[in-house]
Amino acid sequence: DRQTDRQADRQTDRQTDRQADRQVIPYLPTCLLCVCLTGSVYCEEVSPDMTAVPTLPKETAYLYARYNKINKITAKDFADIVTLRRIDLTGNVISEIEDGAFSKLTLLEELSLAENRLVKLPMLPAKLTTFNANYNLLRTKGVKATAFKKLTKLVNLFLANNQLEAVPQFPESVRIVHLQNNNITEISADTFCKGNDTYYLRPNLSEVRMDGNPVLLSKYPNSFTCLKSLPIGRYN
């Protein structure tokens, strides 16, 4: 009887081990290449080259995958990791983001896609507070007119060093907008303010950078009446 019990115990142990292995194995490559701490995954300058978003452990809240060779974000990459709050993919070679790639990330607050090769933006998650797409190849036709308008919690919007021809619409919540070194040639009375409402104020907006654009801001004196301070840019 004791022998039968021992064999049964051994079998149960083996089964438990197998189940444990099954749970660990999918994430092992990521956590060997990267540093995995509770809720955070750091994959910076990984060698050999990381060309796709790695498989993330469940419950990951913070992903830092900077300075790799990731070239595309697919709709599946983040589909199961709904706990993400911050994603930093600065300094990759991303040229394509599939539709819906971020659509399940209802908790995401910070997203950096700076220093990549993007020509257009996907739909962004509604709770974003900071979005950084500095140093890409974005043109106005690749940024939907409403891309940022519905992001009612957005505070920081960084779109410097792209090829934008116009200032995108952005919500009242925004405090800092960086649009320096683009190809913006003109603005209107409705770009920052509401041309038909002289009483309209935008108290949150404290910093607008437009330097390094062809637009001559002094040609549009009525375009800044709602702002606390004038945009940084060319006036003569």
Automatic annotation (TrEMBL):
Gene Ontology process terms (BP): articular cartilage development; bone development
Any one Gene Ontology molecular-function term assigned to this protein's record: growth factor activity
UniProt xrefs under Pfam families: LRR_8
Domain of life: Eukaryota
Keywords for this protein: Disulfide bond, Extracellular matrix, Glycoprotein, Growth factor, Leucine-rich repeat, Proteoglycan, Repeat, Secreted, Signal
Subcellular localization: Secreted, Extracellular space, Extracellular matrix
GO cellular component, one term: extracellular space
Broad class of the protein's primary localization: secreted
Annotated function: Induces bone formation in conjunction with TGF-beta-1 or TGF-beta-2.
Family: Belongs to the small leucine-rich proteoglycan (SLRP) family. SLRP class III subfamily.
Protein name: Mimecan
Organism in which the protein naturally occurs: Myripristis murdjan (pinecone soldierfish)
Taxonomic path: Eukaryota, Metazoa, Chordata, Craniata, Vertebrata
Gene: OGN
